[in-house]
Design a protein that fits this description.
Number of domains: 1
Bound molecules: adenosine-5'-diphosphate
Structural class: alpha/beta
CATH superfamily: HUPs
Low-confidence stretches: none
CATH topology: Rossmann fold
Strand content: 15-25%
Shape: globular
Distance between the termini: 45 Å
Oligomer: single chain
Order of helices and strands: EHEHEHEHEHH
Number of helices: 6
Radius of gyration: 15 Å
Length: 161
């Protein structure tokens, strides 16, 4: 059985993330989408809220589960007995950063954790959680960027900020 983890901030999950989740779920027997509890990043949604959004969005995908973690990905993956990390590549600008993370994880885990990259579907290549937040902060339309229920939650957040 081949298990993979898709780690990220998912603040909030976008249609680009969901596209990677759907495609990866077809490649592996099980996929754990795991929200990194990164205290250093000033997040819009709490980890619990991000986990709930991902659970709702992946409800129809039986081999996908949602979790959260803090600390090093390699420690989390070892605990879960997972040897593959999935990451998305949007543009060449993602490459250097992602290459560094992938190589560090492989080195630190002594080869136990490898990374599989999925290139983004073209229609989502421009999408990022930060741009979604930026558009929403100025009351812009984010309905092309996130599922409908997420757009509502983002709007609510900015209303109450
Ligand atoms: P992080 O803060 O760890 O980069 P993100 O939630 O921003 O977390 O992204 C998680 C992963 O999803 C990263 O590998 C990122 O490149 C990828 N990703 C983000 N947006 C998209 C998109 N629109 N299409 C494909 N992959 C994406």
């Amino acid at each position: 059985m081949i298990a993979a983890v898709y780690p990220g901030s998912f603040d909030p999950m976008t249609l680009g993330h969901l596209d990677v989740i759907k495609r990866a779920s077809k490649m592996f027997d099980s996929l754990t989408v795991s929200v990194l509890d990164n205290k250093a990043k000033n997040a819009l949604f709490s980890v619990e809220e991000r986990v709930n959004i991902l659970r709702e969005a992946t409800r129809g995908l039986p081999n996908v589960s949602v979790d959260s973690f803090n600390g090093l990905l390699i420690d989390y993956a070892r605990e879960k007995n997972i040897h593959i990390s999935v990451r998305g590549l949007r543009a060449i600008t993602d490459f250097e950063y992602e290459l560094q993370i992938a190589q560090t994880n492989r080195k630190l885990s002594q080869g136990a954790l490898d990374t599989v990259f999925l290139t983004t579907s073209l229609e989502y290549a421009y999408l990022s959680s930060s741009s979604v937040k930026e558009i929403a902060a100025f009351n812009g339309d984010i309905s092309q960027c996130v599922p409908e229920f997420v757009a509502e939650l983002v709007k609510e957040k900015f209303k109450n900020l």
